[in-house]
Amino acid sequence: MSIQQNLLNIKSTLPEHVTLVAVSKTKPVPDLMEAYNAGQRIFGENKIQEMVDKWEQMPKDIEWHMIGHVQTNKVKFMASFVSLIHGVDSLKLLEEINKQALKNNRIIDCLLQIYLAEEESKFGLDEDELSALLASPTFKEMKNIRIVGLMGMATFTDNQNQIKKEFTHLKSIFDELHNNTQRRDGLQSVSTTLNTLSMGMSSDYQLAIACGSTMIRIGSSIFGGR
After folding, report:
1. Residues in CB range of 104: below 8 A, 6 or more apart
2. Which SS3 state, helix, strand or coil, does residue 145 take?
3. From CA 206, how far away is CA 189, in angstroms rounded?
4. Which helix (H) or strand (E) covers residue 155, if one does?
């Protein structure tokens, strides 16, 4: 099946409140343009240099999402155009995003990545680190970032019960954060923008949506395997 057909098939199954990020890492520009011509406007990349190269070549109404692990020294290369940074897992990284956003006279939307999986290879904050970050004076002074939600990746496993447990756990953290920020004036700025829960990929996005995801990241089911 064509990229266009794959994309339309997936979109036809998605509830209205779920945003589809087409994960286009390692795929050539003509493949992305096929998805673009089929109506897709949000693309996710995991390497900043590759995203910059594609941004330079492609139409400017595309939203570029950085979905990979971000090194602080690379933030400056995408700060002028990136729409959403998914994998924010430290205060240090947030400080750098804030600094580069200020230089570009922008406010950059970010998702805080929560560590869910039973794998050492995954990045993310645990619940204590999340609370500490949001309570820190440094965070409260940042004017050029906007935390719009949370992101998490489930364990790479066929065990659907385990994946469901991890997704449900992330949704409960999201709900609790939403409730807490609405109650506590100090975090008022977060609560008003907290609307995105990014979880679910090609293999598990339907389960993720059932567990409360509002944003899914799909690559191979659109573009085919690498």
Report:
1. 79, 80
2. strand
3. 31
4. none
Domains in the chain: boundaries: 3-220
Structure tokens belonging to residue 39: 């109506």
Quick one: angle between helices 160-183 and 127-135, nearest 10? 20
**Residue written as tokens 């489930």?**
154
CATH of domain 3-220: 3.20.20.10
- The single-letter DSSP state of residue 161 is H
- Output phi, psi for 109, to 5 deg: -75, 140
**Tokens 């506590």 sit on residue:** 184
Q: How far is Cα 17 from Cα 214, in angstroms, rounded to an integer?
A: 6
Could you read off the pLDDT tens digit of each residue along the chain, which spans 226 residues?
Answer: 899 999 999 999 999 999 999 999 999 999 999 999 999 999 999 999 999 999 999 999 999 999 999 999 999 999 999 999 999 999 999 999 999 999 999 999 999 999 987 766 668 999 999 999 999 999 999 999 999 999 999 888 889 999 999 999 999 999 988 887 655 544 545 545 789 999 999 999 999 999 999 999 999 999 987 6
Within its chain, how far is the Cα of 111 from the centroid? Answer: 6
Residue 168 near residue 208 (C-beta atoms within 8 A): no
Nearest to 204 by CA among 165, 173, 177, 175: 165
Contact between 42 and 20 (Cβ < 8 Å):
yes
